[in-house]
Amino acid sequence: MSARGEPPRKKVCREITTASKAMEECKQYRMTERHSLLALHSMKEMWQRGELCDLTLLVGARTFSVHRVVMAGSIPFLRAMLCSGMKESRQQEVRLHEVDEESMEVIVNFCYTGELDVGIESVYPLVAAANLLQMDEVRDACCLFLKSRLSPDNCISTHCFADTHGFLELLAAADNFACKNFDAVVASEEFLSCDVDAVTRLLDSEVVQVPSEERIYHALIMWIEADRAGRSKHVLDLLRCIRFPSLSRSFIESSIIPSELIKSTPNCEAFFQGVLAAHMNPHTKVRLPPVAVYVVGGRNATHCLDSCERYDPCNNTWNAIGSMKQVRTAVTVAQLNGFIYAIGGERETQYSQYGTSYLNSVERYNIKSDVWDNVAPLKTSRSFAASAVLNDLIFVIGGEDGSNYSLLSVEIYNPAKDTWFEGPHLNMRRSGPGCCVVDGCIYVMGGCTAAIENYHMSVECLRPPNEVKDEREYASDCHWTLGKSMTLARSGVAVCALNGHIYACGGRNRSQSIYYKAVECYDCDRNEWRQVQPMHMKRAWAGSVVCGGLIYVFGGYDGVDRLDSVESFDPVTETWSNVDTTMAFQRAGCAAAVT
Q1: 545 near 594, Cβ under 8 Å?
Q2: Does this model's pTM top 0.90?
């Protein structure tokens, strides 16, 4: 600032005859990050020495001598108090209420250092203080810490804490944890001591993951028996949480109705008369089935695969499911209306110079019957294509057809008609791109132009109309536009969308002989890419899905071996973890879907 309080004027260069000479004589240098760190460090040293401090904060019995401008710049609550003409703006001492002394010490230290010490004993008062002082960074860090410490012994109390303070992300994380780990949660002391509202919320959840509804009934009884005298009045209300159509009639009649607790509860007899009458009613509410991941096809070290595997993230277990009719590697899959579609790919053949032939066939998997059936084939054979589901249609994008050229074309499947029709062409030929959907927009990224080994970092976006008025005109009703490019050019990239962000994982650039474990994250609101923690393994042509708030990446090729390992990414902590169970087969060129 100048002596008159005006911002410094930018240096004005004198006029010169050529633009190039002007650029040589007048340049702007940005050292923002280094300058900010040096300034903050200097202010911290002055604070530690008590130099130029002009404000005292009174918290409980403690006093904190600080710099007014640092506090106003770091704590929004104090900025409003000190800069808005309130009486505190003219005072040398300001008392803060409803903030404990230890938390204030941590917060003041954070203001001067940007460093935050969070512990299990300090986190609850600290996050409450941060919420009061409107310090979003501190609040979010505390919530992140609490999420990382979720366990069967604390998820219920964490849920109640988050609900009280309106921490919606922490609330959802605690609820999700309890539903995924139901058996461990109900075996904890916390469950037995929690109130009826918490029990009702857990037992009545649509997404609680249990192998059978009997577990819900036994948890109810266990909670009641922990304090039968005080809790027996809640029996009838809690029984309404049970999805009785999911229980066998014999279990209801032989194990529940005759029990002494039920017989001694008023109005239970009439209640169970209604239960038995409605037991076969198809419209009675049932719980959602457990979420599972299906990994399809690919290639191991010796041959292409028709086998498929089902992963249960709740129990961390794998099971084989029905095999496809056709071996497929470089396959793409889509899940629509509870069915899984395996689309295109390649199979081994002795009649091709490449050892494989390209497929246009499509199979549909029925989860209930564990059977694959053929549906209408693609118009063009495709391997290394990407797929997306939007508006009850399947979009199959790019790929290659064996003619040594990558494809621009897009095909769209209408399951209601079992037909394919043409979609709008891409701007660039793409083999091995990644694809996802965010807010009604299809994003496709990366890939390569096979004939000239040109690898792409570019991104294209398509916002198709909500309904198909005329399939013959659909390709001209919308078009692909270029978006913000990734920082790495690659094909075989695994792409997922989660919480308004797009994650591009792994891939390869053959022209540079590189296989990647790098991961980039695109913020759709800010229109920017940034690097996040890389995977543990290099992976190209891996399968990927979002499940339970995590990103899973399955198999792939690291440049030496085809992989059977799995990694998961937590977007909250931005960390990758190895899943400690592996697939039955090594798989590269596989694909995955959730249902």
Answers
A1: yes
A2: no
